[in-house]
């Protein structure tokens, strides 16, 4: 909620009266409850008042009548509105079940606005107003439930929040009724004459009254003799309420009716003094009345103990419960129950005989005396239990302020025994290092029994704790920690059976839940949550009790958001659904708990079965695993930072299996979401706890451990080897045995994960030993690879095999393919950028340990012989693209070791898979796949297998010829093929269209290039689009519009592996792939529009619209070269710049020494003196195009001015664009701008034409494809068959 200081309600001015510390007697509290209930009855009985009240509350909400119950600002108002509506409907309901349901719904809805921050603002409405409305209508709900004391409780809370609203709007006249009885005697002494018209004074005294009386009301609810139990309460309203409540039908029990008759005398007291004037004179009558009521309640409870045990508020007298629980004979320290008490109470108790909260039986003639002392003993017990050495729960300083000590001598009726009137000396008992919470009575010799003293002490402890629960403000004050004491008491009660103990347990739980849901004091909520967490952690059955009592997750979430970290334990133990956890929006709080130092938590909590960080860890596991990919990713983004990971790694406690399982599950998700987590985890995560999970008998533990290690091992090879060595140090034999069993007994997926880990660990062992592990692991992988029945396990086994001998990057991406492609001799940045998803500058590819590792692991797999290649051959033929691709990678790296081995195995392998490998050579496949197929053929046909090359089909030979410009291996294989069987090449000139993509919204496609394996297109409107090409499908993956005018050209910039874009807006922009998104990292301004660009090292070359050639160095300073020439196009290759000029000449610039040379002079014929529109380099040939296409080897251009070849496409037609590949030259001529002419490079014959459908505005050749962009915004591509 938005938090702003309140403007409409001034802060209260605290009042201090002389008797604030005095005890309020029970009759005063009854009178207060009576008046409040009478006033509320009158409001509900008057229909006009009821309607007016509703309008006052809802008029400010300004919301539509629609149900909406999410935790947002609007939903807070919705819940308040519908809470009021349900309360009104319940009042008019004739069906009992309908009334109960509507009251429950109203209470749940009203609790949401009631939990707001009092000092905040919600949708422009002060929270204090919303909270006041909520508590007022909660009192209406309780009134309809006939719970009169709770009516008063909620009403006083509303007064505490905003007394002015209550007195003037919601309950006018209440001040006039309360003032004479409860306020005037105190106010007149302090302020003299009271001014009823002074709103500020009225607010102060009403707030004081609510603060003064509310704790005592709560206290007497618990400590009373039973007259006020929920559901059978004494009617505190006068007779008039019976006839005026027409819509609120009330039923009274026999006990309530009798008690009502006895209480009529106190319905209209004149003043506070009249009520409490002479306690000693009235005590006998009151005690007799209370005894009679107590007897009836006991009799009634025996008949309905089950119903009473399940009530949410059981207010039986504490002393009665204690006295009824005493057995007939004392239990000695050496009895069978003594061990339990010794464990739950400190050693200082051992000096006494341990009783079990027992009491004796008195004769019939003593009942009257007991009744006389009953009321007085209540006062005595309160004073003694609250008078600590330094301060009491209410700050009471002197007992004799309200009662002489001697009045209570002999009134100790905890054991229904009479003691002589001798002074009581307050002492303390030790709870190890903690201060006393009760007293010990020092009695004369003959009357001081250990059992009696201990019983008094135990009673004092329990009563003290219950009292502090009632006066919740005191729970958070000082350094007192009630957690251990309350847990001890609860454990004792829990060990007993019977209604009396259930009632006491319910009292404890009720008051804790009230404090958690209602208190605004952080310390109070923290203490209450800590107590409840401690109880619940070791008594899981309590969860059902607090759920039944209506513990709201929202209250716990609110407490957690207020830094009450212990609340997360309760949230976890309640076990809410993932959807409920998500709705609470707890993740930021959970992260804070995890990142908080353990020293934050008290010593007692560290010994619990569950700590706040551990509970947070397990809830975080749910948040990152239980939802869809987008939701999980959103949660993972919040926990993937080093700070949070560091906190997560510190949470699990030693030997705590469940906590390490949760941690492993979270880390696996984090590493998959953000590969950067992997490096941090590998450096700072301990290995031993996760290794121990592999040895566990729990299936979940072993499964998550296998996932953890398999995911963590996806790192550069040297680092992965180091991790394997750490695992090995934890127990090589144990690890091997555990993994061996997992490969035999686990589910298919985890069987493969175990096999992967086992095989890699076995590489570190001596090759001559433990072969059974190696064979079992390798066979598990090959068996799954050959089985096509389960696509998932086949794909997993193929993936494992493909990278088993290679490496990964730190991001977890497999880089074995890139490592193998480098072995083929792929060095050109242009060709590398045709390959997807690899950064060839990544440090993982520079790892010197890859080759040695590959050799070791390959030897162990090749030891199985030809079955390896039969399994790989099945995988290569798989219809699943990822399976066949991974099997090609595995075949390639195994071939790197196979070439060193015996000819027999290599020859056998060649027989099995060579024919299948050939299919990966053909055009149309990814360049990396064609290169790996070439590598396989090269390795598998080496030695005696060279003759196998003669069996290669013409299509394979043609593919090798087209790859000869990319890798030297293809060129070597062609030489061998020509040696064994010379062949006249037959070139297929048929082209097939494989691609059409784009739209008309951005204008003409003015530039094309491949970068990072994706196709980039620049447009006339200044936008750049990124396309992912898969087969014949192009998918738009990103679009930017940073240029203000047309993007005219692209170029690659090797430093940083960047992309350059030139534009007519007089800028060159530098782009880089960051997190798989293209981002502009630099803008280079120029003075003219850019027509074309190229680069070499850190130097950028650009031609401008005015035909100037600019050189931009690393400092971004530009200068002109070839100043005497007007340059139209450029090409950079092998450290030289070739510039085609407007006078049809070609200029050469040596970049390293800036030496300039003219290699082609201008044409002497005026007809051919046309500008060179395009320059292309293929191998060692240089081609240029103007009216004609000319070409020669570069060194021959310098020797002779005549070209070796010359082609005239169309007479008088200028050539606009040109691309040269192995077999073809593609031309776009001015006379036919919408088509491409196809010419054979070797014979200079025109063999065909490709139609683009509209004017061609850009041209690109890549991986045997020819692509063009058109003025209509389309991209079309063809490939020769």
TrEMBL record:
Keyword 4Fe-4S: no
Residues in Putative E3 ubiquitin-protein ligase LIN N-terminal domain copies: 29-179
Gene3D superfamilies hit by this protein: Leucine-rich Repeat Variant (1.25.10.10), YVTN repeat-like/Quinoprotein amine dehydrogenase (2.130.10.10)
Species for this entry: Rehmannia glutinosa (Chinese foxglove)
Domain Putative E3 ubiquitin-protein ligase LIN ARM-like residues, every copy: 623-976
InterPro entries noted in UniProt: ARM-like, ARM-type_fold, ARM_LIN, ARM_LIN_2nd, LIN_N, WD40/YVTN_repeat-like_dom_sf, WD40_repeat_dom_sf, WD40_rpt
Residue span, Putative E3 ubiquitin-protein ligase LIN ARM repeats domain: 458-621
Protein name: E3 ubiquitin-protein ligase LIN-1
Key words of the record: WD repeat
WD repeat segments: 1015-1037, 1040-1073
Disordered: annotated span: 247-274
PROSITE patterns with a match to the protein in the record: WD_REPEATS_2, WD_REPEATS_REGION
Transmembrane helix keyword on record: no
């Amino acid at each position: 909620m938005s938090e702003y200081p309140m403007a409409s309600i001034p802060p209260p001015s605290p009042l201090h009266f002389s008797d604030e510390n005095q005890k309020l007697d029970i009759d005063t509290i009854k009178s207060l409850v009576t008046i409040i209930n009478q006033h509320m009855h009158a409001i509900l009985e008057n229909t006009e008042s009821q309607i007016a009240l509703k309008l006052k509350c809802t008029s400010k909400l300004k919301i539509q009548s629609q149900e909406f119950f999410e935790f947002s600002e609007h939903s807070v108002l919705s819940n308040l509105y519908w809470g009021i509506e349900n309360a009104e409907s319940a009042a008019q309901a004739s069906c009992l079940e309908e009334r109960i349901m509507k009251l429950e719904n109203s209470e749940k809805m009203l609790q949401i606005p009631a939990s707001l921050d009092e000092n905040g603002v919600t949708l422009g409405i002060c929270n204090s107003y919303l909270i006041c409305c909520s508590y007022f209508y909660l009192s209406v709900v309780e009134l309809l439930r006939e719970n009169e004391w709770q009516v008063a409780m909620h009403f006083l809370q509303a007064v505490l929040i905003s007394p002015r609203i209550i007195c003037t709007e919601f309950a006018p006249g209440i001040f006039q009724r309360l003032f004479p009885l409860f306020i005037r005697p105190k106010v007149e002494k302090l302020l003299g004459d009271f001014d009823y018209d002074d709103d500020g004074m009225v607010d102060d005294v009403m707030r004081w009254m609510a603060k003064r009386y509310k704790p005592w009301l709560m206290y007497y609810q618990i400590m009373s003799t039973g007259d006020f139990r929920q559901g059978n309460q004494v009617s505190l309203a006068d007779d008039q309420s019976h006839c005026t409540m027409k819509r609120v039908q009330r039923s009274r029990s026999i006990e309530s009716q009798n008690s009502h008759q006895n209480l009529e005398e106190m319905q209209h007291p004149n003043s506070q003094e009249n009520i409490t004037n002479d306690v000693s004179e009235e005590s006998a009558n009151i005690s007799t009345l209370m005894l009679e009521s107590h007897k009836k309640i006991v009799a009634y409870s025996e008949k309905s103990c089950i119903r009473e045990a399940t009530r949410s508020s059981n207010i039986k007298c504490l002393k009665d419960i204690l006295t009824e629980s005493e057995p007939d004979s004392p239990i000695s320290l050496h009895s069978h129950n003594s061990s339990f008490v010794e464990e739950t109470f400190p050693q200082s108790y051992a000096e006494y005989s341990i009783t079990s909260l027992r009491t004796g039986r008195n004769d019939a003639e003593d009942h009257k005396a007991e009744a006389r002392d009953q009321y007085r003993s209540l006062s005595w017990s309160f004073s003694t239990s609250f008078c600590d050495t330094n301060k009491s729960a209410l700050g009471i300083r002197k007992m004799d302020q309200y009662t002489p000590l001697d009045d209570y001598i002999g009134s100790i009726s905890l054991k229904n025994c009479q003691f002589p009137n001798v002074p009581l000396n307050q002492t303390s008992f030790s709870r190890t290092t903690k201060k006393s919470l009760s007293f010990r009575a020092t009695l004369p010799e003959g009357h001081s029994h250990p059992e009696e003293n201990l019983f008094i002490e135990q009673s004092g402890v329990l009563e003290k704790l219950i009292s502090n629960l009632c006066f919740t403000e005191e729970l958070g004050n000082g350094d007192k920690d009630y957690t251990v004491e309350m847990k001890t008491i609860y454990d004792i009660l829990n060990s007993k059976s019977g209604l009396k103990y259930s009632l006491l347990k319910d009292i404890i739980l009720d008051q804790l839940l009230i404090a958690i849901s209602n208190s605004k004091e952080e310390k109070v909520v923290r203490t209450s949550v800590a107590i409840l967490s401690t109880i619940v952690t070791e008594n899981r059955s309590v969860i059902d009790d607090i759920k039944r009592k209506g513990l709201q997750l929202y209250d716990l979430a609110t407490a957690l958001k207020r830094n009450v970290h212990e609340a997360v334990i309760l949230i976890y133990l309640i076990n809410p659904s993932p959807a409920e956890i998500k709705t609470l929006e707890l993740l930021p709080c959970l992260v804070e708990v995890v990142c908080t130092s353990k020293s934050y938590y008290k010593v007692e909590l560290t010994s619990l079965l569950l700590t706040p960080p551990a509970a947070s860890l397990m809830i975080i596991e749910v948040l990152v695993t239980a939802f869809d990919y987008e939701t999980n990713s959103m949660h993972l983004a919040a926990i993937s930072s080093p700070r949070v990971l560091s906190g997560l790694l510190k949470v699990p406690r030693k030997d705590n299996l469940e906590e390490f399982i949760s941690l492993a599950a979270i880390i696996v998700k984090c590493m998959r979401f953000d590969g950067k987590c992997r490096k941090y985890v590998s450096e700072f995560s301990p290995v031993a706890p996760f290794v121990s999970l592999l040895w566990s008998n729990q299936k979940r533990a072993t499964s998550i451990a296998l996932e953890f290690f398999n995911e963590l091992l996806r790192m550069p090879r040297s680092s992965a080897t180091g991790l394997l060595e750490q695992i090995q140090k934890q127990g090589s034999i144990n690890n091997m045995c555990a993994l061996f069993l997992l490969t035999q007994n686990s589910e298919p997926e985890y069987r493969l994960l175990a096999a992967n880990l086992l095989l890699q660990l076995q590489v570190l062992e001596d090759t001559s030993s433990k072969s059974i592990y190696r064979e079992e692991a390798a066979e598990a992988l090959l068996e799954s690879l050959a089985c096509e029945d389960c696509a998932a396990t086949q794909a997993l086994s193929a993936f494992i095999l493909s990278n088993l001998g290679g490496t990964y990057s730190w991001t977890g991406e497999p880089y074995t393919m890139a490592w193998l492609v480098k072995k083929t001799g792929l060095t050109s940045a242009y060709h590398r950028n045709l390959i997807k998803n690899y950064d060839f500058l990544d440090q993982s590819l520079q790892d010197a340990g890859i080759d040695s590792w590959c050799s070791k692991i390959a030897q162990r797999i090749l030891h199985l012989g030809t079955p390896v290649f039969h399994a790989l051959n099945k995988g290569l033929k798989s219809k699943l693209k990822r399976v066949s691709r991974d099997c090609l990678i595995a075949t390639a790296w195994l071939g790197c070791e196979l070439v060193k081995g015996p000819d027999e195995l290599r020859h056998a392998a060649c027989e099995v898979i060579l024919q299948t490998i050939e299919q990966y050579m053909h055009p149309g496949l990814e360049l990396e796949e064609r290169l790996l197929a070439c590598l396989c053929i090269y390795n598998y046909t080496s030695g005696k297998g060279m003759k196998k090359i003669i069996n290669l089909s013409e299509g394979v030979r043609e593919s090798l010829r087209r790859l000869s410009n990319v890798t030297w291996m293809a060129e070597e294989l062609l030489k061998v093929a020509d040696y064994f069987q010379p062949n006249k090449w037959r070139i297929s000139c048929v082209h097939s269209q494989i691609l059409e993509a784009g739209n008309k919204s951005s204008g003409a496609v003015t530039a094309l290039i491949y970068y990072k394996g994706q196709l980039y297109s620049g447009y006339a409107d200044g936008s750049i689009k990124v396309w992912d090409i898969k087969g014949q499908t192009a998918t738009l993956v990103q679009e930017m519009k940073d240029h203000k005018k047309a993007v005219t050209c692209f170029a690659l910039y090797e430093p940083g592996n960047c992309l350059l874009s030139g534009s007519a807006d007089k800028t060159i922009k530098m782009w880089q792939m960051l997190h798989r998104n293209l981002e502009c990292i630099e803008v280079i301004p120029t003075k003219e529009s850019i027509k074309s660009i190229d680069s070499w090292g850190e130097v950028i070359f650009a031609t401008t619209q005015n035909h100037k050639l600019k050189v931009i160095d690393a400092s971004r300073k530009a200068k002109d070269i070839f100043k005497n020439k007007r340059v139209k196009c450029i090409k950079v290759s092998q450290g030289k710049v070739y510039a085609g000029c407007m006078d049809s000449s070609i200029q050469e610039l040596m970049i390293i020494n800036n030496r300039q040379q003219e290699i082609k002079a201008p044409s002497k014929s005026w007809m051919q003196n046309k500008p060179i529109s395009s320059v292309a380099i293929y191998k060692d040939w240089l081609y240029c195009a103007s009216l004609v296409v000319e070409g020669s080897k570069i060194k021959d251009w310098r020797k002779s001015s005549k070209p070796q070849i010359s082609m005239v496409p169309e007479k008088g037609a200028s050539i606009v664009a040109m691309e040269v590949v192995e077999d073809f030259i593609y031309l776009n001529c001015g006379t036919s701008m919408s088509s491409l002419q196809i010419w054979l490079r070797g014979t200079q014959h025109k063999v065909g034409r490709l139609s683009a459908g509209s004017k061609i505005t850009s041209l690109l050749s890549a991986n045997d494809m020819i692509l063009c962009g058109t003025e209509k915004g389309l991209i079309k591509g063809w490939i020769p068959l």
